[in-house]
Design a protein that fits this description.
92 residues, mainly alpha, globular
Length: 92
């Protein structure tokens, strides 16, 4: 079975970039939590689109692109993972 290529919308790329930047700008050595991932997806999507259906769609796409947080992962490590996802999607 072949791996399906990862295709990210422009909005999803922008939101992944914003999330990664935010995580390293504020307490990068602190633990990353799933609740932060989910809350920031909502906040960033609504900042981009306002409280609209488009924001809901953008949030869901961001959550689909950003993997679940692993145990003992720092905010910096998670941001690096998001950047790797963007890089890999861009090379396809």
């Amino acid at each position: 079975m072949t791996e399906q290529p990862v295709i990210l919308s422009d909005d999803t790329r922008t939101l992944l970039h914003q999330l990664a930047d935010k995580l390293v700008a504020d307490r990068p050595a602190a633990a990353m939590h799933e609740s932060i991932r989910r809350a920031q997806a909502l906040v960033l999507a609504e900042q981009m689109h306002g409280p609209t259906e488009k924001a809901v769609d953008a949030e869901q796409q961001l959550l689909a692109a950003a993997p679940p947080v692993r145990d003992h992962q720092t905010r910096r490590q998670y941001a690096a993972l998001l950047r790797l996802i963007m890089q890999e999607a861009g090379s396809r």
